[in-house]
């Protein structure tokens, strides 16, 4: 696939790849073609053994300021059902490798939902998060009511969804929505460094650990513990487990193979 609305880049960090949303004039508003490209790029990197961790970003002014309203303004309910745009979001949820969102400026509506779909968020001091869909007569539809509530709790999520209020990076950090705030001029570099630390870990263990954490939102504690245990046992079939434990005993750095 030729990409028109995203850029995929290698980085100077082993195992770390970067995807940039690239509609700067539209503040990286998420259109259908752009989401198709994003899903395709994520799936390609997920299948690439040289990729261990993915960083997703926009630009300093906007991570993504929402969905492309012009694309859907005149649609009917039947049109929306046929387009079924959220199927692409379900595909992103299936990406096995860790994804870090590097957010600066606006992360609103679909942009906030996309950031929350990532596994961790590094935010610049200028970042703003919000679900302002209520102001144009609709509501979040790509997970905003569900992921936001799980991240920040009912009270703040209800306020953001029902009033459309934006929250700052500082408030997002206090609420548990993001991992870290860094100066705007180095936000992307800090996200890449963070990704590089993760990329030093054994790839299979990263993927199964991510899967187990995400499962905790969908199951009871008992079912989650059972799932965690199965993934823990499964890793004992890997070469990396043998290497990791042997390296620990021998007091040396492990050499991961992703096998």
Descriptive key words:
259 residues; alpha/beta; 2-enoyl-CoA Hydratase, Chain A, domain 1; Lyase 2-enoyl-coa Hydratase, Chain  A, domain 2; 6-stranded mixed sheet; 4-stranded mixed sheet; 12 helices; 46% helix; globular
Describe this structure in words.
It is a single chain. With 259 residues, the protein is α/β, with parallel strands linked by helices. The protein has 2 domains: 194 residues, 2-enoyl-CoA Hydratase, Chain A, domain 1; 48 residues, Lyase 2-enoyl-coa Hydratase, Chain  A, domain 2, CATH 1.10.12. Helices cover 46% and strands 15% of the residues. A 6-stranded mixed sheet has the order 1-2-3-5-7-10, with helices on both faces. Strands 4-6-8-9 form a 4-stranded mixed sheet. Helix 1 packs parallel to helix 4 and helix 6 crosses helix 7. The relative contact order is 0.12. The model has no long low-confidence stretch (mean pLDDT 95).
Question: What's the arrangement of secondary structure elements?
Answer:
Layout: E1 6-10, E2 16-21, H1 32-46, E3 53-57, E4 62-64, H2 69-72, H3 77-83, H4 87-93, E5 99-103, E6 106-108, H5 110-117, E7 120-124, E8 128-130, H6 144-152, H7 154-163, E9 167-168, H8 169-175, E10 180-182, H9 187-199, H10 203-215, H11 221-234, H12 239-250
Parallel strand pairs: 2-3, 3-5, 4-6, 5-7, 6-8, 7-10
Antiparallel strand pairs: 1-2, 8-9
Helix pairs in contact: 1-4, 6-7, 10-11
């Amino acid at each position: 696939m030729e990409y028109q609305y995203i850029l995929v880049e290698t980085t100077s960090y082993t195992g770390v790849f970067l995807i940039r949303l690239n509609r700067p004039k539209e503040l990286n508003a998420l259109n259908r073609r752009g989401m198709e490209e994003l899903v395709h790029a994520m799936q390609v990197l997920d299948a690439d053994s040289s990729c261990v961790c993915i960083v997703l970003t926009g630009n300093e002014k906007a991570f993504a300021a929402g969905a492309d309203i012009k694309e859907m303004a005149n649609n009917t309910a039947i049109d929306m059902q046929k387009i079924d745009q959220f199927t692409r979001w379900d595909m992103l949820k299936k990406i096995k490798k860790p994804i870090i969102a590097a957010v600066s400026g606006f992360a609103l509506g679909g942009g906030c939902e996309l950031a929350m779909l990532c596994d961790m968020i590094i935010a610049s001091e200028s970042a703003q998060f919000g679900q302002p869909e209520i102001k144009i007569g609709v509501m979040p539809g790509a997970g905003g009511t569900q992921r936001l509530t799980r991240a920040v709790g009912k009270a703040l999520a209800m306020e953001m969804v029902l009033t459309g209020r934006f929250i700052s990076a500082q408030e997002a950090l206090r609420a548990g929505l993001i991992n870290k705030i860094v100066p705007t001029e180095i936000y992307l570099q800090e996200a890449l460094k963070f990704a590089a630390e993760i990329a030093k870990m054994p790839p299979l263990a990263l993927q199964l650990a991510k899967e187990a954490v995400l499962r905790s939102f969908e199951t009871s504690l008992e079912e989650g513990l059972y799932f965690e245990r199965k993934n823990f046992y499964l890793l004992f079939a890997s070469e990396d487990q043998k290497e990791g434990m042997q390296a620990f005993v021998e007091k040396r750095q492990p050499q991961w193979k992703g096998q």
